[in-house]
Amino acid sequence: MKPTVFLKTAIASFTALTVAGLAHAQTIDLRVMETTDIHMNLVDYDYYGDKQSNSVGLSRVATLIKQARAEVDNSVLVDNGDLLQGTPLGDFMAKGRILRFGEVHPAFKAMNLLDYDVGNIGNHEFNFGLDFLAKSLHGANFPYTSSNVYVDDGDGNPDNDQPYFQPYIIKEKTVIDSEGNEQTIKIGYIGFTPPQIMNWDKDNLTGKVIAKDIVESAKKYIPEMKAKGADVVVAIPHSGMYNNPHKKGEEHASYHLAKVEGIDAILFGHSHRIFPGDKTIESYEGVDGEKGTVFGVPATMPGFWGSHLGVVDLILEPNGEGWKVKDGTASVRAIYRRDGRKKLPLVDADESINDAVRSEHEGALEYMRRKVGETTSDINSFFALVQDDPSIQIVNNAQIWYTKNIVRGTSYDNMPILSAAAPFKAGGRGGADYFTDVPKGDIALKNVSDLYIYPNDLKVVQLTGAQVVEWLERAAGQFNQIDPKSSTKQALINPKFPTYNFDVLDGVEYKIDVTQPNRYDDKGVLIEGNNRINNVTYMGKPINLTQDFLVVTNNYRSGGGGKFPGLDGSTVVIHAPDKNRDVVANYLLTQNKIDPEADQNWSFSDTFGSATVSFKTSPKARNVAPESMSFVEVGEDGFAEFILN
Questions:
Q1: DSSP assignment of 332-377, as one string?
Q2: DSSP 445-493
Q3: Rg over CA atoms, the chain
Q4: Are strands 297-302 and 274-275 parallel, antiparallel or unpaired?
Q5: Segment 158-212, tens digit of pLDDT
Q6: Which end of the chain, N or C, is more open, meaning fewer C-beta atoms within 10 Å of its C-beta?
Q7: Is 219 left (phi over 0), alpha (psi -120 to 50) or beta?
Q8: CB 555 within 8 A of CB 461
Q9: Domains, the chain, ranges and CATH?
Q10: CA gap 579, 30 in Å, rounded
Q11: H helix or E strand, kind and range, residue 399
Q12: Cis peptide before 276 (omega within 30 of 0)
């Protein structure tokens, strides 16, 4: 029987609908690339070593960016933040050369050549003040976003707070779909910075801005972004990833941010880790290290100082009149690889980037090579984690010298003064070359930056003797617990504990018993009953736990950085007008010639027993190691292993 006219029409209509459906089944591949924590490593140069480097530099990442961009039809590029501070070049632009309104900051001379789509504000962007930040951002030919920083209007009503930066940005982008056709998609970008900026940069920000919770800000703005038509939402948190229970105002919120509905990709930073690739992060519930996802959301953190490029590849499919993300993966690409002690380059530098900032780079080198003093012996941090160290001693001496002068004639004049300083460059994630190493002779400004690498503001806190001891207990988390009865070789240093949190307090004497468990866990939570610090004395007598002390430190520590007990900003009694690094430089200028020998005010308790205790340091330490240490070998990671005798 022949088909009826009705049936023919129905078949034709069905066929037409099927063809139309297939025509709309195309997809879009979108690559999102990320840089983070460049810290003014624009060129492939080690300013502290004053030599070319294969392992740092935006100019090297630029090559990766161009390669990754050439592989696909559709891509965008974002920067996560912590861009404007970190190397002497950053200091030179803020304090030496001094950037003027209308001039382009060298960071943006470089980045403008790479066609960035969006930038995020990191916490270190605030280190030189809001005016300097405004002058710097003016030179960027791409927009910036930060959703959780607001104008401080002082009215106490959070409902009418106005964002200080653009809280989010939605940009239209013309792309090529899988059928070769042009499509227009809307990509939404939303940035975040740690709320702790209000403590870390209190002097720069108080009365001007306030910072709010990262996750709450995401929940506030992402529905708004979706309502305005964002097909893709890219979150750019300058915030690390830890699986702690969520707390309002937390610094490291990226893990919980991944649970916020509507986010399609997370490009995170701040904690200088690498994801995918960090085994700790990959062990968390909901994390797929192979695919590079967190609770199903593609996420990447590309290291620090230009060590890696982060890459997120998304697949979009039609969604009504727009598009939605169907799937995605994340990965990282490195600029170098380790081969034993060597760092072998995987890409060459993009010389257009180096050329763009050459005049500022050379100006920074001249600026940093100025003489400020002289040392009668070498200064290094090779053994800073296992014995009292001259590189820390100089900083503490300078801070006590400065504070004695500024309290003279005030109500604090007769109070005992202690000083806290930590080994900023002591290996760790920075590698086997990341140590302070100042040779005997002239000390230049670059060496001061080697001794104190951060542009912190000097603060003085008032604490009791009991609080001083608790400070030391928290710092003792630098060490693993040693079993004195075991004959198995045991590593002394806890690699998860940042060396910049290992404060040495000068002005008191004390011992650390590492055979005892930590009094504070990795998150700074008190564990009752544990004690590692003993024999604490002041002026040769047991410390008076109720006596008040002035302790010199920096804005990071005094404001709660590192989660030290008694340090939350409330105990600060002196907000000094100078930065710690400037204090060190001025101290060296006044002394002219210094003897950097450490005063040995702390040591380990004699409780190792029969244990064989090892630690890793720079291979250069082999030539200067004391008799109390025995060299073992240089490992594949480039570090030299020693045994404490």
A1: EEESEEEETTEEEESS---HHHHHHTHHHHHHHHHHHT-EEEEESS
A2: HHHHHHH--S-PEEEEEEEEHHHHHHHHHHHGGGBPPP-TT--SEEE-B
A3: 27
A4: antiparallel
A5: 889 999 999 999 999 999 999 999 999 999 999 999 998 998 888 899 999 999 9
A6: N
A7: alpha
A8: no
A9: 25-360 (3.60.21.10), 371-644 (3.90.780.10)
A10: 44
A11: helix 390-407
A12: yes
> Which two three-digit tokens encode residue 233?
């939402």
Which among 48, 148, 58, 34 has a CA at the least distance from the CA of 110? Answer: 58
DSSP string of 5-58, one letter each residue: HHHHHHHHHHHHHHHHHHHT---EEEEEEEE---TT--SSEETTTTEE-SS--H
Helices and strands counted in the chain (H then E): 17, 38
Residue with tokens 């960071």: 107
Q: What are the structure tokens assigned to 598, written together?
A: 């450490």
Q: What is the pLDDT of residues 76-93, one digit of tens each?
A: 999 999 999 988 899 899
Tracing tokens 């109720």 back to the chain, one arrives at: 546
pTM: 0.76
| Cα separations in angstroms, 323 against 24, 86, 186, 222, 314 | 11, 40, 9, 16, 12
Comparing C-alpha atoms, which of 334, 323, 326, 339 is closest to residue 300?
334
The tokens describing 237, both together, are 């948190």
Provide, for the chain, the percentages of residues in helix, strand and coil under a 3-state DSSP scheme, each rounded to the nearest 5.
30, 30, 45
- Write out the E strands in 177-244: 182-192, 209-211, 232-237
Beta bridge partners of 294: 287, 297
Distance (Å, rounded) from C-alpha 246 to C-alpha 236? 18
Look-up: residue for tokens 């009668």?
376
The torsion angles phi and psi of 170, rounded to 5 degrees, stand at: -115, 120
